[in-house]
Amino acid sequence: MKNSRTYQIKVLDKVLQILGLFDEKGKELKASELHEKLGLNKSTTFRILNTLAEADYLERDPRSRKYRLGFKLYFLGSLIEGPNEIRKIARPFLEDLLHKCEETVHLTVLHHGEALYLDKIDGKRSVRVVSRVGMRLPAHCSGVGKVLLAALPIESLDRIIKEKGLSRLTDNTITNEKSLKAQLARVRKQGYAIDNEEIEIGLKCIAAPITDSKGNIIAAISVAGPKDRLKEEATIIPLVMDTAAGISRALKERGFEAAFLCSEAR
To answer: How far apart are the C-alpha atoms of 224 and 204, rounded to whole Å?
Structure first.
């Protein structure tokens, strides 16, 4: 079997690399920053940036001379029906959960072996969770990630562990494959997962799975906040599980099926 890079078009690969450099920390970048980070020559970088700007994939601020992502990418993103639909359906349930617990709530899916945030509503308290829509977290040490990993066939789980590893973020992070699989077995049995300072010291998270009309686990929700405020697990766990069940019922009523959201299983 040929390496996938055999089929890559070099100039397209460079375009994708450039677009990939724009993130939360680098919303606006100069042409010089882009060609230095990617090791491209100035003329190639300029031609690519000019082409992307003319097609509205990038915009250039005339004063700062910095580039930022353009409206065309926003428009294309709005056409992705699955994530947008599940986010729209889940939103009122998340708002109700926030009202009941007053802590930050999240909606996530598993994407390329990581927990990807589709939605977030900030808690009402002064100390809040630092997260954002579009952010990715390691699945093995996040509550939502463990819920989603627990739903995978063993071969898919093994592949993700091999590709992503089990990096240690805190002293509580599970870095042993056998221990992780034992915890995932408990998650499947009990129907929820807990991140107990595994991704960040002082942060706790309680998560539960969402299923589509076929009963496939396609997403997860969570309540996250300072561990001292999430002591009452016996109260919060039922709230999270009931909310996840409510979203699942709403998806089933609409006949919502999103096999691509759990594509890690294939």
So the answer is: 6
Question: For residue range 141-194, what is the model confidence (pLDDT) as tens digits?
Answer: 999 999 999 999 999 999 999 999 999 999 999 999 999 999 999 999 999 999
Q: Give the integer Cα–Cα distance in Å for 5 and 148.
A: 29
**List of residues 6+ apart from 27 with CB closer than 8 A:** 68, 69
- For 127-165, letters b (16+ CB in 10 Å) and e give eebebeeebebbbbbbbbbbbbbbbbeeebbeebbeeee
Rounded Cα distance between 99 and 108, Å, is 19
Q: CB-side exposure of 140: number of CA atoms within 13 Å?
A: 25
Burial 213-237 (b: 16+ CB within 10 A, else e): eeebbbbbbbbbbbeeebeeeeebb
User: What is the Cα gyration radius of the chain?
Assistant: 20
Which parts of the chain have pLDDT scores under 70? Answer: 1-8, 24-26, 74-75, 77-82, 125-131, 258-266
Q: What's residue 1's pLDDT?
A: 42
User: How far is residue 248 from each of residues 207, 240, 256, 258, measured CA to CA in Å?
Assistant: 14, 12, 9, 12
Q: From the centroid of its chain, how far is CA 222?
A: 12
- pLDDT given for residue 266 in this prediction: 39
CA distance 53 to 148: 38
| The pairing of beta strand 66-69 with beta strand 29-30 | antiparallel
At 81-94, the pLDDT tens digits run: 557 788 899 999 99
Give the mean pLDDT of the chain. 86
Whole-structure pTM value: 0.74
The token duo for 251 is 């998806």
